[in-house]
Write a structure and sequence with these properties.
- By secondary structure, the chain is α+β, with helices and mostly antiparallel strands.
- Among the domains are: 1-48 and 620-747, no CATH class; 762-942, no CATH class.
- Helix content is 42%, strand content 19%.
- The chain contains 25 helices and 28 strands.
- The strands form 6 sheets. Strands 1, 3, 12, 13, 14, 15, 22, 24, 25 and 26 form a 10-stranded mixed β-sheet that branches.
- Strand 4 (131-141) and strand 5 (146-158) form a beta hairpin.
- Helix 2 (9-47) crosses helix 17, helix 13 packs across helix 17 (719-739) and helix 19 (775-806) crosses helix 22 (863-897).
- It is elongated, with a radius of gyration of 42 Å.
- The chain starts with a helix and ends with a helix.
Length: 942
C-alpha cells in the first residue's frame, strides 16, 4: 500500500482530491442546512403567533371553501351579525388553558355626515343683483377607476332680506321680500318631476337642493337645503361669510367589545391617545334634555383617529347666468330645480378636492365637539338615526378563482335619514355595484312610544397602529379587528387598471372590501342598538340576533406556544373542549399566514371594470408545514449529496483498480489470496479517506467562513469519520473486483475481441462499436453521468416540492426564498462531482486505448477524425446518461410528491441538454491527450 502511494502519486492525489471535495462540501452544506433551519425556525417563531391563537365563530359560519382549502376569509367579519351568546362566551372564557377570550359583536354601519367648507367670497358681487351658483360633487375612489356624480346643489345669493315663512326644521322653504313688499317663496326642497324606480325604490336622479343666503349685513342667517348659503351670518354655529358647506356621508363600522378582554388582548386601552378608555362596567346612560319628554340614551364610544377609506370628493362650483338667478328670485323653477336648473350653462369659478382622511378628521373633531358641548362651529349630529348591517360576500367557486356575486339593487336599501316614504337617489357609494346584501335599521317613528334616537358619548380616540394586535406581517391572523382588508391585481390587466397599487376600501359598504371599525362601543350597548324599542328591523329575519349578538371570540392561551408537538396538542385539546361545550366552530390560527386568493370583483356602475384581485386570506398551519418541510428537505439533500459522493469515489476507485489490472494479476500469480487483494484495495482507499478527512476538517472552517456559514470545530472533525466511511463504502465493489483478479488476465488483451469481423462505415458506427467492446467501462461512465443528471433534476424536484408545500402565503414564500441558497450550493456540488467523474472516465478511456488510437493514426486517420471519434463517444454516453438520469429523477420525484409538474419536466430536459454539452466539453481533456500519444513507441510495444 505504501509503495503504491509512493510510486503512483497521481492516482492517489486524484482520489484524495475527490474525497476532499466530497467531505468538505458535505460539512459546509450540512452546516448551511442547519443554519438555515435555525433561521427558518426563528422566522416562524417570530411570526407564527399573532394576536390570538384560536378563532371561535358561530356554528356553520365556516364556508365550504374555507374548510376545503384550510383558509379563513379576510372579508367575512363585517358581515357576521351575531350567532354566539354571552353564555357561550363565558364558557369559552372559563375553559382551562384559556388566558383571554375577547368577543366582538358587529353591529353595522352608521353613516355620519361631515360638512366641508367651500369659500365663495371672491365670487360674490354685492349690488349686481342676485347670483346663482351650481355646486357639483363627484366622489372618486378605487385608484381613480370609480367616479360617482353625487348630485348638484344650488346656492342662491341676494342682497335682499330673507325670511322664514314657517319653522325651517320642518323643511319649509325660505321666502324673499320683493320690491313691492310682497313675499316670494324660494329655495324649495321639492323635486316633483323626479320619478321613482319601483324595482330599486330610488329616485331616477339625485335630489337637487337649493340653499339661500343674503349679503345684507343686517340679515340673519337663513338657509334651506343640504348646502349652507354664501352669506354673512350672525347666528351662532353658522359658517363664515362667503362659505358654503358641502356634505359628505362616511360609513363608520360599529363594533362592540368587552373592555377588559379587549384591553388584555389588543391593548386597546393603551392605544387611546385622546380622551380616556372605557370605565370598568361602563354602560349606556339615560339623560334628560330640554325640549324632550323622553330621556336620551347615550352610548359610550371610542373613535378611530384615521380612516382606511381611499376616496376623494371633488367639488366644482359654477356661476349660472343672471337669467337663471332671476327665475329663482321670481319664484320660478324652484319646484323643478332638479330638472330645470341643470340645463342652464354655467361658468366654472372654483374647484376643490377633499381627501377622505381630511374629511374624517373634520368629522371626528365635530363629533367630539358635539358630544362634549364645546362646539365652536358647524357640528355633526351625534344622534344615531339608523345603521345598516351587511351579510358576508357570496362567492362562486370557479376552480382557480372565486367570483363575488352581484346583489340586485332592490336589496340595497335607501341610506338617507328620511321619514315616510324613505326614497332617495343613488347619491354616494351605496349606489355602486353591491356584493353584500344590506339591511337598514332606522329609529322607531311611533310617537309617544319610542324613545328619542340614541346619542353618541365620545370618550376618546384610539390609534390602530398602537395596538398590540397589529399583526399585519408574515404571521397576520385572520379577521383582524382593526385593520382593513386589501387586495392587489391578480393579472396584468387588473394591475394596470390599479396602477400597480393595492385596492383599498371606499365608502361602498356593500362592496367587496369592508372598512375596519371606526367606532368601538361596549357589549352592554347592544341592549340599545339591537332593541326593537329603539330601532326597526331588529329581528332574526333582518339579520339581527339580539339573543346571540356576538360575532366571533378571539382566544389566546396561557404560556408560550410554538410549532412543536406539545404546543399543537395543547391547541387541539382546547379547541376540542370549546367545540364540545359550546358547539361553535373553532379555527386554530397559530402559525397562520396571509395567502392570496384570486377573487373576481364585478364591474362597477361608475367606470370600474371587472377586476381579478388577490385577496389576502389566511392559510392555517403554515408555520408547522414550513418547519416539517425544511427538515424533510435537509434530509433528502444530505442523502443526495452522499449518494453523488459515493458514486464519484466508487468511479475513481474502480478506475484505479482497472489501471492496475495486470499488477493485481501478477500478485495473484505469486500466491496472493483473494482476501489479501481485497484488503489491499480497502486499506489504500481507507488511508486516502482518512487523509482526505483530516485535510477536509482543516478546510471546513475557513470554507464555511467564505460561504458565510459558521462551521464549528466539532462539526468539522466529523469530516474524518465521514470521509473514512465514504471511502470504505466506495471501495467495496472495486475491492471485490480486485479479489477476483485472475492470473491469466496479466497477459489477456485489454479489450474483448469481436465475435465476427464487421465492416464499419462512419465515425458514429465505430464509436458505438468501441463502447460495446468495453461495456463495463461504458456503463460506468454512463452511470456516473446519469447520477450527476439525476442529482440535478432531483434537487430541482425537491426544491419544487418544498415550494409547493410551503409557498402560497407570505410566511411560506419568505421561507421558500430563504432556503433556496442551499439548493443552489447542493446543485453546484452535484454538478462538479458529476463532471469530474465523467472527465475521469473519459481520460482513463483514452489512456487505456492509446494503442488503438496510435494504430488508427498510423493507418491514415487524421487528428480531426480521431477527435470526432472521442467526442462522438462522449456524446453517446452523455445522451444515454442524461435520458436515464433525468427519467429516474422524474420518476422518483413523482413517487415522492405524488405529482409531476410541467415545470419540472422542462427543468429535466434542460438539465439533460446541459449535461450533454458539458460532457462533450469535458472530452476536450482526453482529446488533448490524443495529441501527445507516442504512436511509434506504442506500436513497438504492441
Amino acid at each position: 500500500m505504501l509503495s503504491q502511494l509512493r510510486y503512483r502519486p497521481g492516482r492517489a492525489l486524484a482520489l484524495v482530491a475527490a474525497l476532499l471535495v466530497a467531505v468538505t462540501s458535505f460539512s459546509v452544506l450540512t452546516a448551511t442546512a442547519r443554519t438555515q433551519r435555525l433561521d427558518v425556525v426563528g422566522k416562524v417563531a417570530a411570526n407564527d403567533r399573532g394576536a390570538y391563537d384560536l378563532l371561535v365563530r358561530p356554528a356553520g359560519a365556516r364556508s365550504a371553501l374555507e374548510s376545503r382549502a384550510n383558509l379563513v376569509s379576510s372579508t367575512a367579519l363585517a358581515g357576521l351579525s351575531g350567532g354566539i351568546t354571552s353564555r357561550q362566551w363565558q364558557q369559552v372564557l372559563h375553559i382551562p388553558g384559556v388566558d383571554v377570550a375577547a368577543p366582538v359583536a358587529v353591529v353595522g354601519y352608521a353613516l355620519q355626515t361631515v360638512q366641508l367648507p367651500v369659500d365663495l367670497t371672491e365670487h360674490l358681487k354685492p349690488g349686481d343683483g342676485p347670483q346663482l351658483f351650481r355646486v357639483s360633487t363627484t366622489q372618486t375612489s378605487e385608484r381613480g377607476l370609480t367616479e360617482i356624480p353625487t348630485g348638484e346643489s344650488y346656492v342662491y345669493v341676494t342682497d335682499r332680506p330673507l325670511h322664514d315663512r314657517k319653522n325651517r326644521s320642518e323643511g319649509d322653504p325660505v321666502a324673499q321680500s320683493a320690491p313691492d313688499g310682497s313675499v316670494i317663496q324660494i329655495c324649495g326642497m321639492s323635486d316633483n318631476p323626479n320619478p321613482v324606480d319601483p324595482k330599486t325604490n330610488r329616485y331616477a336622479r339625485p335630489v337637487a337642493t337649493l340653499a339661500c343666503g343674503s349679503t345684507n349685513q343686517d340679515n340673519t342667517y337663513n338657509a334651506a337645503g343640504a348646502a349652507s348659503p354664501a352669506a354673512r351670518p350672525t347666528n351662532k354655529g353658522t359658517p363664515a361669510a362667503g362659505t358654503t358647506l358641502v356634505p359628505w356621508s362616511m360609513p363608520f363600522l360599529v363594533q362592540a367589545v368587552d373592555p377588559v378582554q379587549e384591553a388584555r388582548l389588543a391593548g386597546l386601552d393603551r392605544a387611546v391617545d385622546k380622551g380616556h378608555y372605557f370605565a370598568p362596567g361602563q354602560k349606556p346612560v339615560a339623560e334628560s334634555q330640554e325640549g324632550s319628554s323622553e330621556p336620551f340614551t347615550k352610548i359610550p364610544v371610542l373613535l378611530a383617529g384615521r380612516t382606511a377609506i381611499e376616496e376623494q370628493l371633488h367639488v366644482k362650483v359654477s356661476e349660472l347666468p343672471a337669467a337663471a338667478a332671476a327665475r329663482v328670485a321670481a319664484g320660478q323653477d324652484t319646484e323643478v330645480l332638479g330638472s330645470a336648473l341643470p340645463r342652464a350653462a354655467g361658468t366654472p369659478v372654483s374647484r376643490t378636492a377633499f381627501a377622505a382622511q381630511d374629511a374624517h378628521r373634520r368629522l371626528i373633531d365635530s363629533l367630539n365637539s358635539s358630544s362634549t358641548g364645546t362646539a365652536g362651529g358647524a357640528t355633526a349630529d351625534t344622534q344615531i338615526w339608523q345603521y345598516l348591517s351587511a351579510l358576508p360576500v357570496r362567492y362562486t367557486d370557479g376552480g382557480d378563482r372565486l367570483a363575488a356575486g352581484p346583489v340586485p339593487a332592490s336589496r340595497i336599501p335607501d341610506t338617507s335619514i328620511h321619514f315616510g316614504a324613505g326614497l332617495l337617489s343613488d347619491t354616494g357609494d351605496t349606489g355602486d355595484t353591491a356584493v353584500r346584501p344590506l339591511t337598514r335599521h332606522p329609529v322607531q317613528e311611533i310617537a309617544d312610544v319610542s324613545p328619542p334616537a340614541p346619542q353618541l358619548q365620545v370618550l376618546g380616540e384610539f390609534d390602530p397602529d398602537r395596538l398590540t394586535a397589529a399583526a399585519t406581517g408574515l404571521g397576520a391572523v385572520p379577521m383582524e379587528t382593526y385593520f382593513p382588508a386589501t387586495a392587489s391585481g391578480a393579472d396584468n390587466a387588473s394591475r394596470k387598471a390599479l396602477r400597480n397599487r393595492p385596492l383599498l376600501p371606499n365608502g361602498n359598504i356593500a362592496g367587496l372590501l369592508s372598512v375596519p371599525p371606526s367606532m368601538i362601543t361596549t357589549l352592554s350597548s347592544l341592549d340599545v342598538l339591537n332593541s326593537s324599542r329603539h330601532f326597526q328591523n331588529t329581528t332574526p329575519a333582518h339579520g339581527v340576533n339580539a339573543k346571540a349578538p356576538i360575532s366571533v371570540v378571539r382566544v389566546r392561551l396561557t404560556g408560550a406556544l410554538g410549532t412543536d408537538a406539545l404546543s399543537r396538542e395543547r391547541l387541539r385539546l382546547v379547541a376540542e373542549q370549546i367545540h364540545r361545550r359550546t358547539g361553535l366552530d373553532v379555527d386554530v390560527t397559530v402559525g397562520s399566514s396571509p395567502s392570496p386568493v384570486t377573487v373576481t370583483d364585478p364591474a362597477g356602475r361608475y367606470g370600474r371594470p371587472v377586476l381579478h384581485l388577490a385577496e389576502m386570506w389566511s392559510l392555517k398551519g403554515v408555520a408547522t408545514v414550513a418547519v416539517a418541510a425544511i427538515d424533510r428537505k435537509a434530509l433528502l439533500l444530505f442523502l443526495l449529496i452522499l449518494g453523488v459522493c459515493v458514486l464519484f469515489v466508487a468511479g475513481a476507485t474502480s478506475a484505479a483498480v482497472r489501471t492496475r489490472r495486470a499488477e493485481l494479476a501478477v500478485l495473484a500469480c505469486t500466491g496472493w489470496p483473494a482476501r489479501r487483494l481485497f484488503a489491499l484495495i480497502l486499506t489504500e482507499v481507507g488511508a486516502l479517506g482518512a487523509l482526505a478527512g483530516l485535510v477536509g476538517a482543516a478546510l471546513a472552517v475557513p470554507a464555511g467562513a467564505l460561504a458565510g456559514v459558521p462551521v464549528s470545530p466539532g462539526r468539522a472533525l466529523l469530516a474524518v469519520p465521514a470521509a473514512l466511511g465514504l471511502a470504505t463504502l466506495a471501495a467495496l465493489r472495486p475491492g471485490l473486483q480486485a479479489a477476483r483478479s485472475h492470473p491469466g488476465s496479466a497477459v489477456a488483451p485489454a479489450v474483448r475481441g469481436p465475435r465476427r469481423a464487421a465492416r464499419l462505415s462512419g465515425i458514429t458506427r465505430l464509436a458505438l462499436t468501441n463502447l460495446a467492446r468495453v461495456p463495463g467501462r461504458a456503463l460506468l461512465g454512463t452511470a456516473a453521468l446519469a447520477g450527476g443528471v439525476a442529482a440535478l433534476v432531483a434537487l430541482a424536484g425537491i426544491s419544487t416540492a418544498f415550494d409547493g408545500e410551503v409557498a402560497g402565503s407570505l410566511l411560506g414564500d419568505a421561507v421558500s426564498v430563504q432556503v433556496r441558497s442551499s439548493d443552489y450550493a447542493a446543485a453546484a456540488v452535484a454538478a462538479l462531482l458529476g463532471a469530474a467523474t465523467v472527465a475521469d472516465v473519459l481520460y482513463l478511456n483514452v489512456r487505456e486505448r492509446a494503442a488503438e488510437y496510435a494504430l488508427l493514426r498510423a493507418t491514415g486517420w487524421s487528428d480531426a477524425a480521431l477527435h470526432r471519434l472521442v467526442l462522438t463517444e462522449a456524446a453517446l454516453m452523455a445522451g444515454a446518461a442524461s435520458v436515464l438520469g433525468a427519467g429516474a429523477a422524474l420518476g422518483a420525484d413523482a413517487a415522492f410528491t405524488g405529482r409531476l409538474p410541467m415545470s419540472l419536466v422542462l427543468i429535466a430536459a434542460g438539465a439533460a441538454a446541459t449535461a450533454t454539452v458539458v460532457t462533450v466539453l469535458a472530452a476536450a481533456v482526453p482529446v488533448f491527450l490524443l495529441r501527445r500519444i507516442p504512436a511509434a513507441r506504442l506500436l513497438a510495444e504492441e
